Amino acid sequence: MRTKYSRVLLKLSGESLMGSQGYGIDPVRLGQYAGQIKAIAQGGVEVAIVIGGGNIFRGLQGASKGFDRVKGDQMGMLATVINSLALSSALESVGQPAKVFTAVNMFPIGEHYSKWKAIEALKAGAVAIIAGGTGNPFFTTDTGSALRGIEVEADVMLKGTRVDGIYTADPEKDPTAKKFSEITYNEVYTRGLKVMDLTATALCKENHLPIVVFDMDTPGNLEKVIAGEPIGTLVY
User: Fold this and answer.
1) N or C end of the chain: smaller count of CB under 10 Å?
2) Strands 46-51 vs 127-131: parallel, antiparallel or unpaired
3) Could you say which residues of the chain have pLDDT below 70?
4) What gap in Å lies between CA 215 and CA 222, rounded to an integer?
């Protein structure tokens, strides 16, 4: 398998796991993701993964409905652990070793995250799924994925979404929106594009971690991105 990257941090949204259900975890979508991830891992790419929890609970939405923000964010962290366990189970069922790490100590549900343990798992051929965000409230899983990508020394952060890249406007709402093949971190900021939150974008910029935003829901796209095909948008 021809690869442009040797170690990647794959960021998946919790919403993407819903598939066509509109809530929770769609086993079909989960299986598709597991198959794509196994294909690149078996091709020699070391894969770390961070998943959001929006299909189960969002701290910000909870706060708007009267939840304490800190408790709401902690509930969101637990949602990411549920998604991570589901993905690890799906990967193992297709023969791909996977290990769940958690930002806060939750043994035996997952091993307490450390950079060195995660890299050890990656080098042993396992997919390292890092749950619980940063372990702190007021930080999104985008920021968590930026932080983990930098820590495990990934070559790139791959942000798998429902759209095939970054556009001048929301392509689902504005038919005239134009897609960027590449864009700088600064331009993302000045244009106010909703790629990731500002903290995550700043972390990636300061630590020179490029981001590729691509459509993860089309089977085969993950392998194309790994091979260096220009199917998404590069943020640099």
Assistant:
1) N
2) parallel
3) 59, 62-63
4) 8
